[in-house]
Amino acid sequence: MTSEQSTPPQQQYAERSYRSPAALAGGGLLILLGLWLGGDALLRGVPQTKIMAAFALILGVPLVAAYTLRPLVRAGEDRLLVRNPFRTITLPWGAVDDLRAGFSAEVFTSGGKYQLWAVPVSLRQRKKANRQAARGANPRGRFGPQADAGPAPRAMADQTMDELREIKERAAHRESAKGEPVVRWAYGIIAPCVVGAVGLIVTIAL
User: Fold this and answer.
1) Which phi-psi region, left, alpha or beta, contains residue 179 (left: φ > 0; alpha: ψ -120 to 50)?
2) H/E/C letters for each residue in the chain?
3) CB 15 within 8 A of CB 73
4) Packing angle, helices 156-170 and 123-137, rounded to 10
5) What are residue 152's phi and psi, to 5 degrees?
6) Distance separating alpha carbons of residues 54 and 28, to the nearest angstrom
7) Are the beta carbons of 54 and 66 closer than 8 angstroms?
8) Confidence of residue 136 (pLDDT cuts 50, 70, 90)
9) Is the pTM of this model over 0.90?
């Protein structure tokens, strides 16, 4: 008798991650600036200044990181992971009702909605894309160097939401994509922010 070994099915679609490059760059610069100023105060300041600088860093660095470096959207075959400043939301695709990008990018479930901080909506970029699309629809715009340029590009947020909707549709009938949303608080961010804020208030009051 011969035995056959079954290999587990490989993931059909590659996992996709979305982050804001502008937020990453801005957050990194702000943290470096804060560390430079706070470090200078810790080295050269009077005792009260040193204490205030320490609490300001404990508050400021995690807070800036929460809003700039932490946000992430990761789309897998079965789940959408949304990492916002103070929460991480895991959404099986079966629990996702809709994805929209109005003034902000949002995912809707039967229990409510969650904002996608990692997918910023630029109204300026959207208007520019709409103008390019309008020019492309003009018959006169089909002549010249851009005649074969193809469809006009869309705003990045709208492209991202289209990709997420496509992944959701692929997972619509998979049993592994069903389940309930799971929300976890980012205590590693919240705790130092609370400590820093309380410390600053007490130091200023005294």
Assistant:
1) left
2) CCCCCCCCCCCCCCCEEECCHHHHHHHHHHHHHHHHHHHHHHHHCCHHHHHHHHHHHHHHHHHHHHHHCCCEEEECCCEEEEECCCEEEEEEHHHEEEEEECCCEEEEECCEEEECCCCCCCHHHHHHHHHHHHHHHCHHHHCCCCCCCCCCCCCHHHHHHHHHHHHHHHCCCCHHHCCCCEEEECHHHHHHHHHHHHHHHHHHHC
3) no
4) 90
5) -70, 145
6) 19
7) no
8) low
9) no
Q: What are the pLDDT digits (tens) for 23-81?
A: 999 999 999 999 999 999 999 999 999 999 999 999 999 999 999 999 999 999 999 99
Amino acid at 90: T
Torsion of CA 59, 201, 117, 92, to 10 degrees: 90
CA gyration radius, the chain: 23
CA angle at 201 for the pair 198 and 204, rounded to the nearest 5°? 145
Q: Tokens standing for 115?
A: 């904002």
> Which amino acid appears at position 71 of this protein?
P
Find out whether 64 and 30 touch, Cβ atoms under 8 Å: yes
Task: Identify the H or E element spanning 36.
Answer: helix 21-44
Rounded to whole angstroms, the Cα distance separating 113 from 95 reads: 11
Residue located via tokens 């009051």 = 205
